[in-house]
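Reopening this one. Same input as before:
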Amino acid sequence: MKLLCFAHRNEAKTFFDRLKLSPLDTSLNLFKSKNEFILISGEGIQSTTELLSIVLSKYENISEIINYGIAGSLDKSLKENSIFSIRTVYQYFDDFSFKSHTSHDKQATIDLISVHKRIYSPEDKLKLSIYAHLLDMETWALASVAKRFKKKWKSYKTVSDSLDEATKCQQIANEAKFYSDLFWNHFINTKEQSPLSESSRNLILENSSLYFTHTQAHQIRKYCKSLILRDPSFLESFTSSKKYKSIVESEKSRKEKSKEVLNLLATDYDPITFKELQRTQKVFKSLKNQYLNFDHSEYIEKNSIKFKGQFKSSNDLRNIIRTLEKINIDELKGKSKDV
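Same output, byte for byte:
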């Protein structure tokens, strides 16, 4: 059987949605469908080495390891929204290691270097660009363990950030569902796609009744591409729907209508998460004041709350405490939460 390996569960979300997975070993983040195992290895070389070694020791019927994940680009020629098969993987731990591993994909032409800590700045990426085309934190460990257990391995990556831009972790996390759709599409070997053409994109982005910021336009493209991977006729159906037309034809401002169109797409893209996000946004907004700011961006996935506060007096501190006491944990959990 094949073992599909992902660093983060969000990268495998579409696989969880499409395959009938059942937990096999929750302590290992290991799941099983009819024909595959799926392992969520966690981020980094150490976590991947530990979990994958245990899994391969316990389940000898695993014959091949297939890794999917995002990677930072070290080569400006690599296109976004593409899948790259890894040829050779190297390791970098304060210095370059020449101990490399080569995958079992004879057609692969892209090399990757795995690091032990996150590389954020373009300057640091540039230093590593002489060694490989892509950068991640797990593949070397996966390849090393696979070699030790004499298992075939392949790794497929998509670009999350370019060589000349700083790594933006939160933006990458927000786009995880798109990446997961891309990996799923590659996995099922759907060779004939209906790619999103310029004219099709313009149905939304170039509608004169709408105005999208650069960030919003980027998100529109991500949503549309994923939705078209699921249903080639999606865009045509979406732009001819009553909901879309009612927004476009309303008397609201172009910015207001654009935000509503984006929300409508987000609902189709991931309805459960979008509904939960709206609900938690409302709760956190009611708690915001001059003393405290709440960051709910990771709450749905991690069920944890981040907040920043400042006080200059005892009275300010009391106001902060009163605000925190107003948090209704049961309301935040919702009916579907289990925390």
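So the earlier flakiness isn't reproducible anymore. For the record, The longest strand covers residues 64-73.
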